[in-house]
Design a protein that fits this description.
3 strands; three-stranded antiparallel beta sheet; 5% strand; single chain; Lysozyme; mainly alpha
């Protein structure tokens, strides 16, 4: 019996260690350039290439985030020209675009999430392709497409900003399914944080 317990504990510990290692690995994204000039993104550390570590996930999505969203530094002047152009084209509040960029990538153009979302507004490759994006890491393309997508969500949800933000995070189908903000902890935190950032960017822009 004791031997059985020890064996059981050994395998439980082994599985736990493997799970931790896998999760840690998934949180790391490496970028390197091959000899032919093509750029590669991988979760495996390159052995024979110079690489850039892009350890990243949605900035405002972490349920247990220690960030104080009421006083974390803002970036009202970053990529402002691109944001203003996208705002005018899609008739969307500049502060809302800034809030989503901040929440998604903390204004890091090269950000890549563990699920493959890319760039400032963390566009999934399929969404980016549908919106005509050829390079999701190019600032103008990413902001233009992300703003267009956000504007379309606002139309879908009759101008309800919280529902549009929830859909940006969890998908429009989930918002419709639950007839409101989905009961996902990540999404609920995300919506609250983006709304805080939205209000703060609006105040910051008005004071300039």
């Amino acid at each position: 019996m004791l031997r059985y317990v020890r064996v059981k504990l050994f395998f439980a510990t082994l599985i736990s260690v493997l799970t931790i290692n896998i999760e840690a690995k998934e949180q790391r994204v490496y970028q390197y350039t091959k000899a032919d000039g093509s750029v590669v993104f991988t979760d495996t550390k390159p052995a024979h290439h110079r690489f850039k570590l892009l350890k990243y996930d949605c900035y405002a999505c972490q349920v247990n985030s220690s960030v104080n969203w009421h006083n974390t530094p803002l970036f009202p002047d970053k990529f402002k020209q691109h944001i203003q152009q996208a705002s005018a084209k899609n008739k969307l509040d500049i502060a809302l675009i800034q809030a989503v960029v901040h929440a998604e990538s903390a204004f890091k153009p090269q950000a890549v999430s563990r699920v493959g979302a890319q760039g400032l507004m963390q566009l999934m490759p399929e969404t980016a392709k549908e919106l005509g994006v050829t390079n999701a890491f190019e600032i103008s393309q990413n902001i233009t497409a992300g703003t267009q997508y956000l504007a379309s969500l606002l139309i879908q949800f009759n101008g309800d900003i919280s529902l549009a933000i929830a859909a940006y995070n969890a998908g429009a189908s989930n918002v419709r399914k639950y007839h409101g903000i989905p009961p996902f902890k990540e999404t609920q935190h995300y919506v609250k944080r983006v709304n805080i950032l939205y209000q703060r960017y609006a105040l910051a822009n008005n004071s300039q």
